[in-house]
Amino acid sequence: GSNVLRMSSGIQIKPKTAVQKSKTSSPLPCSPEPAIKLQPKPSDKLNPKTINPFSVHSRPPSTFAAIYAKGGIPCRLVHGSVKHRLQWECLPQTVPFDPLLVTLAEGLRETKHPYTFVSKEGFKELLMVEDAAEKTIPLLPRLVPVLKATLAHSDDEVFGRGLDALVQLSAVVGPSLNDHLKHLLTNLSRRLMEKKFREKVTVVLQKLEQHGGKVS
């Protein structure tokens, strides 16, 4: 029987080893790393603890990417058949806004999946909790510079996320944002001159005026 397993080149076909077989089974969530590293599955990319932002093939990680990779963002991306959604480890209304809301705002400048979705949706869902206004207003001095950098970004999608976040923030904090608008209007007016963003920026300015009242 062993002669059948030998090829003319003299190479013997060996049965699968235990290590090879283990590649077909998923590791336990909290099991220690095996001695031989297995190739990551595509689904591993959705788990923040398996993303390595310090890979030699990538640039130094951003603040958001580093925090996300360490499991510091209390929500994760869940793929749905129609659309993606976030699954929170605890109820959003129980999560401290400081510093999570600022961290999610910084994540709006990300350009890679899943950071783009997690930061945008996480920022939106935090602002939807019942007492979001009183939790957010004290953070405005830190949030506005982050949004200003987002609105100054050269990537069109990043800029678009910044616009959406600004409208969401304005709807929550209302006139409290008025004193900070001067830091944001320069970047908005610059994009207002671009035909592809003219209509959207105009709508955003109208929303800021609506939420900010006569003073705005």
From TrEMBL:
InterPro entries (UniProt xref): ARM-like, ARM-type_fold, Parkin_co-regulated_protein
Top-rank lineage group of the source organism: Eukaryota
UniProt-listed Pfam families: ParcG (PF10274)
Polar residues biased stretches: 1-11, 19-28
Region described as Disordered: 1-44
PANTHER family named in the record: PACRG-LIKE PROTEIN, PARKIN COREGULATED GENE PROTEIN PARK2 COREGULATED
Name used for this protein in its record: PACRL protein
Protein's organism: Zapornia atra
Gene name, Swiss-Prot/TrEMBL: Pacrgl
